[in-house]
């Protein structure tokens, strides 16, 4: 996807996931313009290509920015509850109904949650057989493989965090400034003024960002 800061973001024609903003720098006359991405996938690597066009329409050389997004957020209490539920379904004689319930449960949750469920299961019940072995034994190799393949795309870094002893959830409120140009311009026309001379209408907004905190000791 190609977006122009002036033609798309400042005019409000861009994606709802990408908005323009600004903030004032350390010096009185310094203004920093920003691009806020609200819909990037977690645990993913993005490459952004940046270029500028001057008032004569000349394009600069492209520069590249690589961004690795943060790991997916999981509810650790829910993951532990699901691990207990699956153990109880596997424990003892497993009927066809219980097998299907366990299979549906593990297939319905997101892959990061499944990864965390596996961690809790092995932490509490590995002495009765680890999660992989019990899943293969109770559900059969084919269904077990369908379940386990869902976590294959989790990065090594996020996998290590999802094996942390404790995970706490919180929601941060992040302020940002959403700006739109007050000037009407034909799409694709060349800007003959600098951004400092453009009349912008800006409003401060708040964005809720769920996060996880990871640790090897009990988190407060």
Automatic annotation (TrEMBL):
Organism: Scleropages formosus (Asian bonytongue)
Domain Annexin-like: 71-163
Superkingdom of source: Eukaryota
Domain Astrotactin-1/2 Fn3 stretches: 1-69
Name the record gives this protein: Astrotactin-2-like
Astrotactin-2 C-terminal beta-hairpin domain: residues covered: 167-213
Any one of the GO CC terms: membrane
Pfam families membership: Annexin_2 (PF18411), ASTN1_2_fn3 (PF19743), ASTN_2_hairpin (PF18577)
Biological processes per GO annotation: neuron cell-cell adhesion; neuron migration
InterPro entries: Annexin-like, ASTN1_2_Fn3, ASTN_2_hairpin, Astrotactin
